[in-house]
Amino acid sequence: MLIALLTACGGGSDSGGSDSGGSTTTGPAGGVHLQVVSFGDSLSDVGTYAPIASAVGGGRFTTNPGQVWTQNVAQYYGDTLTAAFTINLGHELKPQSGLGYAQGGSTVATPADQSQFLTDVIGDVEMPVNQQIASYLSAHGSFNSGQLVLVWAGANDVLRAGSPPAANTTVQNAATTLAQLVAQIVQNGAAHVAVINVANIGLSPDGIKSTDGGANFTQLSQLFNATLNGALQTNGLQGKVILIDSYTWTTQTIANYRANGFTVSNTAQACDPSKTPRDTSLLCSPATYSTPDADQTYMFADDLHPTTRMHALFAQYVEQQIAASGLGR
User: pTM for this one?
Assistant: First the structure.
């Protein structure tokens, strides 16, 4: 029934949401105008699958119609981030004019056909990050000093790695490859690059409901981040990129969820599993919320993805870290 509904409805436009960064008459809230380019996975996807998902009120991996953090950051610097590719009803990715290359389901470098990610809805089409960057360079040639490049990847590599010790090699290879891709971005002219490490996936609802309570996911998240740090140093990038510690941020924010304005921590999800198609935030809408204000009171939309408020808070953290590096405010 879901597929029939999605294919019967003719796509739809990507919904917007409020500008959390705000703006002033003197310029962007961030103090400097930057064009934002984003690479990564579902955590940063601004609407790759919206033409299909919007048929049921979805479009992004959060509490729709809310925004994801990359959109908030772009607005903070006076930009609007839209999808670089969107899917059509024939399950084909078509290039668009946007610079949001992040796509739900993407790994650092694993081809899409090696994983089953909502294949009955969107197909095996997601580009890994190495292909996202190659697509950008093919279309635009290089990066420039007027851009802020956001890179957040690795979560899907951790989620699909299995258990140690075999998983360790998979995760380390992904982190090492990501550092090499960051080097490629810098070598091609990017002056402002923010690299986000993997969050503490063990504390997601998916993690805490697993048999080990998320211990494996936490261990692999730590391994990915340690390897990424080392590889960035090896590639001489530590002074050339802004490293954002999402692992520590998620851990601390969850531990202090009430102080951060939430009433429900990581033990439940805002998108009611009994109402949300496929129990995924991609297909979540206000009609499927657990409570009318779940996008603001819950931390997680589904078992992995943040709610609108969680995304907004993370965007503010990223903006603060970028400002601390000396860029803008």
Answer: 0.91
